[in-house]
Design a protein that fits this description.
The chain is an alpha+beta fold and 127 residues long. It has a single domain, classed as Roll (2,3-Dihydroxybiphenyl 1,2-Dioxygenase, domain 1), CATH 3.10.180. Helix content is 24%, strand content 41%. The chain contains three helices and eight strands. The protein starts with a strand and ends with a strand. The relative contact order is 0.20.
């Protein structure tokens, strides 16, 4: 497995994306509306930032109301998301997603419950 991305909740993915692109000399490599959100990806040599702006009520809107803008989750890439989920379950970690589901950019994703991962929402991503 390797680091894939940091998911960042924001009220304005366009402005924040443009600011980060200028600050880090990073390229915005993908943008889409997905699952009630505007999602923008900025590429770095060793991963991406995934900026998440809610366009309607949902998980990210709720997160912003409770916590404000900031890091929402960290994601690791796996070549076998089913095996990764099985490994997490074998360690007694609660999987929010019992089976992988479609994620942004057409990837399969699955989340692990933060109560079992040191308070961090972790995501497995299979490209």
């Amino acid at each position: 497995m390797r680091f894939d991305h940091a998911g960042i909740a924001t009220d304005d993915a366009t402005t924040l994306g443009d600011r980060y692109a200028a600050l880090f000399n990073a390229e915005i490599v993908h943008e889409e509306e997905f699952n009630g959100m505007l999602v923008r990806f900025l590429a770095f040599e060793n991963g991406t930032f995934e900026l998440l702006e809610p366009l309607e009520e949902g998980t990210i809107a709720t997160y912003l109301e409770k916590h404000g803008p900031g890091i929402h989750h960290l994601a690791v890439e796996t070549d076998d998301i089913h095996a990764a989920l099985d490994g997490a379950r074998d360690l007694g970690i609660e999987c929010i997603d019992v089976e992988p589901r479609p994620g942004a950019w057409g990837h399969d994703v699955a989340f692990l419950h933060p109560r079992d991962t040191g308070g961090v929402l972790l995501e497995f991503v299979e490209h």
